[in-house]
Specification:
0% strand; 5 helices; globular; mainly alpha; single chain
Length: 109
C-alpha cells in the first residue's frame, strides 16, 4: 500500500517536530547522555556524574534528577542529534546500561 506523497511529507515533518520537541525538553545533549552512560558503566555514582557535568559546563540545564533518570537507560537520543558512528555507540551503551540496571533490580529482589 503506497502512501500519498503529501501524507509522507506530513509524517516526516511531524516526526521531525516531535524529535526536536523531545530533545529540547530533555535539556541535555546527546553527547552528555553518552557521557552519563559511560560513567555509569565505569561504576560512578549519579551525584558524581552530576557534579562533573556541572563543573565542565556550568551553563548546562541538567539537574540531579535528570542524571538519575538517564542513568537507568531510559533516555532517547535521536539519530539526527549525533553522527552515525556516535549514534551506534549510543545504542550499544544504552543496551549495556539497561542490562546492568535490570540485573541489579533482579538481584535486589
Amino acid at each position: 500500500m503506497d502512501i500519498h506523497p503529501c501524507k509522507q511529507k506530513y509524517i516526516q515533518m511531524k516526526t521531525e517536530r516531535r524529535e526536536k520537541k523531545r530533545a529540547t525538553k530533555r535539556d541535555i545533549t546527546g553527547e552528555e547522555v553518552i557521557f552519563i552512560f559511560e560513567k555509569i558503566l565505569e561504576g560512578w555514582k549519579t551525584i558524581r556524574i552530576y557534579n562533573t557535568i556541572i563543573q565542565q559546563n556550568p551553563d548546562s540545564n541538567i539537574d540531579k534528577k535528570k542524571v538519575e533518570v538517564i542513568a537507568t537507560g531510559h533516555c532517547k537520543v535521536y539519530e539526527s542529534e549525533l553522527s552515525k558512528e556516535r549514534y551506534e555507540y549510543y545504542l550499544s551503551l544504552r543496551e549495556k546500561v539497561r542490562n546492568i540496571r535490570t540485573h541489579n533490580v533482579v538481584d535486589s529482589i
